[in-house]
Design goal:
InterPro entries: AAA_dom, DNA_Partitioning_ATPase, P-loop_NTPase. The chain is built from 13 helices and 7 strands. Strands 3-4-2-5-1-6-7 form a 7-stranded mixed β-sheet, sandwiched between helices. It is of the alpha/beta class. The longest helix is centred in the last third of the chain and has 17 residues.
Amino acid sequence: MGRVIAIANQKGGVGKTTTAVNIAASIAISEFKTLLIDIDPQANATSGFGLETGDEIENTFYNVMVNGGEIRDAIKPSGLEYLDVLPSNVNLVGMEVELVNMREREYVMQKALKGVRDQYDYVIIDCPPSLGLITLNSLTAADSVLIPVQAEYYALEGLGKLLNTISIVRKHLNPKLEIEGVLVTMFDARLRLATQVAEEVKKFFKDKVYKTCIRRNVRLSEAPSHGMPALLYDAQSIGSKDYLDLAKEIFERDGNIRKFKVRQQ
C-alpha cells in the first residue's frame, strides 16, 4: 500500500506547490509509482504539469469528494512515466461548505483513496494554505505531513496552529499520523537571515528537519509557466538537484533506499 504524504502549511508562499510538483516528479523519476493529488482551489499543481484547470472540467478532486465520483476516472497521466495527477479546479472554493453536512466528513478523502492507494508507492497531496475541512481530510487520509518552511522572517509564524491541528487529528481522527519532515525552502546561503532561520527551525524540530534545503533558483520559478516540473524544464538546475536529494532522504527515512539504489543501477 502506497505511503500518503500531505504537504501542508497554512502560511502561504512557503513553496508547498513547488515542493509537491517537484518531489512527486523526483520520486517518479526514481521509478516509484506516484500519484499527485491537487486539493488547492488555485490548481497550481495541476497547471504545473500542463493540465487543464477550467471549471468545465468534470472529473476533478471536487467531483470525487462532493459527487462521489470514481477516483480512477478523475486521475490523469502527467506526461511523466510513473506519475499520475488527480487534478483540481476553481470549483474547490465552495467544497468546504458542501462537506459540512456530510456524514463522517473528515473521512471522505480517506475512503476515496482506498480504491487506488495500493496502485502507488507514494501519494503526494498538495494542500491549500488553510487549516479547513479540505486540509483536515488530507491529514486524516495521510500517513505523514511534510512541512515546508520558508527561510525568511516570520518563517515559524503560525506553525503552532498547524502542529496543534496535527495533534488533534492524531487524537481524534488518525492516530498514526506523523511528521514526515520539515523542509527549509527558498534558502539563500548568502543571507545571514536565511542561515539564522534554518538554525531556528533545526532547534525547534531537531532531527525532523531534512538535511536538504531547497535553494532559491530561477529555474524553479520559471518551470510552472511552461507546464512542467523543474526536472523536465532544466534537469541540471540547482532546484532539480535539490529535489532529487530530498527524494533520496525520503527514501532513506521510509526504508526504500535499497530499492532506489537498485533502480539507479
